[in-house]
Design goal:
- This protein is about 60% helix and about 20% strand.
- By secondary structure, it is α+β, with helices and mostly antiparallel strands.
- The protein has a single domain, classed as 2-Layer Sandwich (Heat Shock Protein 90), CATH 3.30.565.
- A five-stranded mixed sheet has the order 2-4-5-7-6, with helices on one face.
- A hairpin with a 2-residue loop joins strand 4 (about 155-165) and strand 5 (about 165-175).
- Helix 1 (about 1-55) packs parallel to helix 4.
- The radius of gyration is 21 Å and the shape is globular.
- The protein starts with a helix and ends with a strand.
Length: about 220
């Protein structure tokens, strides 16, 4: 009897083990995709900024251009450090995301002539939730900085992270030209994968007043 009973039990254990490996594999593939995509975006932004600065300065202020470029590289280094996994099991939402918004401003927005406003409520989230939400915010902010503002007049991106009725609601909104159609491409696939990994929902609105993307994620206490 015990030998017969061991077959389904062993099958169940094996099934759970294989499922766990598949989840880890998908998770790792998602992280790799995001890393490659983020590096491509970084190099694109750095290349565009150095071309713009050298074109404006010509041969008059080469040292100033190099100095600004060096500061921006350091800013991206700080941003990537924040986006890396933490040794801590949980993180302060306010501290982590306020630092993230400052790093995004220095690395991505200020060189593009875009202002950033942030409103972040206090609370605690697991390090995994914080970092994945941060990756999503970084993707949305970078995308807006690249495409939403053909004219930089009064360009603004506002980031809000608030807790309401057991749900964390994160909003990234810009006052740009408004996205047309659905999000597509590598960036959108990564966003969708990251959202699934933290059981979050993505919603988007676009119009003449700009684009507003909302991420709703269950709070964990």
């Amino acid at each position: 009897m015990s030998a017969i009973g061991s077959i389904p039990n062993g099958g169940t254990v094996r099934s759970q083990f294989v499922s766990g490996l598949e989840d880890q594999s998908r998770d790792w593939e998602l992280v790799l995709q995001e890393s490659y995509h983020r590096m491509k975006n970084t190099l694109t932004l750095l290349g565009a900024s150095v071309r713009r600065d050298f074109t404006r300065a010509g041969s008059r202020d080469v040292s100033g251009v190099v100095d600004r470029f060096e500061r921006r590289i350091f800013a991206f280094g700080r941003l990537y450090q924040l986006l890396s996994n933490s040794d801590e099991p949980s993180l302060s939402v306010a501290t982590f995301f306020e630092n993230l918004c400052e790093a995004l401003s220095a690395a991505v927005l200020e060189p593009a002539g875009v202002r950033c406003e942030a409103l972040v409520e206090g609370g605690v989230l697991s390090a995994s939730q914080c970092h994945r939400l941060a990756l999503m915010i970084t993707e949305l902010v970078t995308n807006a900085a690249k495409h939403a503002f053909p004219s930089k007049n009064e360009a603004l991106i506002r980031i809000e992270i608030l807790r309401r009725d057991g749900t964390w609601i994160c909003t990234v909104a810009d006052n740009g030209i408004g996205a047309t159609g659905q999000l597509r491409g590598t960036g959108s696939r990564i966003l969708e994968g990251l959202a699934r990994s933290i059981h979050a929902r993505l919603n988007g609105e676009a119009g003449q007043g700009g684009t507003r993307i909302t991420i709703e994620m269950p709070a964990t206490d």
